Amino acid sequence: MAAAAGADGAAGPAGTTGAAATTTVGRGGAAEGARAAGATEGAGAAGATEGARAAGAVRTAHTGRRSAAARRHWRAGFQRGVIEIRHLLRNPKEMTGNVLNIVVALTLASYLSGHVPGTHVPMAHLTLSGFAAYLLFQIGLVSLPQILVTEREEGALLRLRATPGGIPAYLVAKSVLVVALALATLVLLLGTAALLVDGPLPHSAGGWLTLLWVSALGLLAVVPLGAAIGAVLPNPREALALIMLPTMALLITSGAMFPLSSLPGVVQKIASVFPLKWMAQGLRSALLPDAARAAEPAGSWELPTVALVLTAWAVLGFLLAVPLLRRAARRESGSRLAQRHRRSTGDARTA
Q: How many CB atoms lie within 10 A of CB 289?
């Protein structure tokens, strides 16, 4: 029994030592497992970081390509616009309509007498200021749609289908042409009016600056809108008839020819929706003395509102013009073009 007890006593420390060793080995394995899991997580995080970097690089590359394409479209549009301006200068007959409008404005101003109600500003000055705004409005909203419809009939939109970025470049080119034509018409009107009928001109640097930004923003408001209208009009002969009537109505109701405050309140509210009213008001603020503000419905020029309304019309016009021009280009085909040519030839023979 003593031997057994001794054996048990000897076995006891040895068993304890083995259990401790087993525990130590287990702890070491757990630590190795934790380190391995940490390494795996680190590798996963590094892989995710590399993936995010790669995705960011791809997005950056796509953005860079889009920006480069947009720059190419703008460059091509400006180059085409300069070419069209040169063509216009070589064919002065195409300016006949604008010159006739200037003659009408000068003739009308020479026959007007009296002053703007409540002021000492000549009525002729108010009329010339409003007519200047109307000429800008007409070039963007009447002349441009006619140009687009005519070129569509000649197959220009069909050719744009095969040109990458053709529609944006085409719109930029037409905008450059119309802006140049409008500014030349404005300079000619104001210059001849100042020489022949003592017409109004800005009296300060601020007035010239206002004349510049109102004219530029007004054109931005109506040129894209004119492009959108031109994309849906049926043919050049109907285009003029469909556009001129509402344009003349806006000329009468927008205060371009006489004080807007003399019109009924309902007409004033309707006119304030459209850009011509704000273009005319902005040009009056640049060309007329501050005393003329008394004839405005609000008693002030409201230049911040002028900028806001014209900017809103510019954004709306661009949002409408590009998809409508693309739709018109998609609908064009060689068979439709040939059919229109046969119809126009038949009409000419009948006439």
A: 13
Rounded distance, CA 82 to CA 76, Å?
A: 10
Task: Quote the CA–CA distance of 135 and 95 in Å, as a whole number.
Answer: 13
What CA–CA distance (Å, rounded) separates 110 from 112?
Answer: 6
Structure-derived torsion over alpha carbons of residues 281, 171, 74, 157, reported in degrees to the nearest 10:
180
Asked if 187 and 212 touch (Cβ cutoff 8 Å), the reply is no
235/149 Cα distance (integer angstroms): 6
Ramachandran class of 95: left when φ > 0, alpha when ψ lies in -120 to 50, beta otherwise: alpha
Do residues 260 and 254 lie in contact, with contact meaning Cβ atoms separated by under 8 Å?
Answer: yes
What is the token pair recorded at 42? 């680190």
Q: Give 5-62 pLDDT, tens digit per residue.
A: 343 444 444 444 444 434 444 455 545 554 545 555 555 555 556 665 665 665 665 5
In the DSSP assignment, the letter for residue 186 is: H
Burial of 216 per CB tally in 10 Å (0-12, 13-18, 19+): middle
117, two tokens: 């109600």
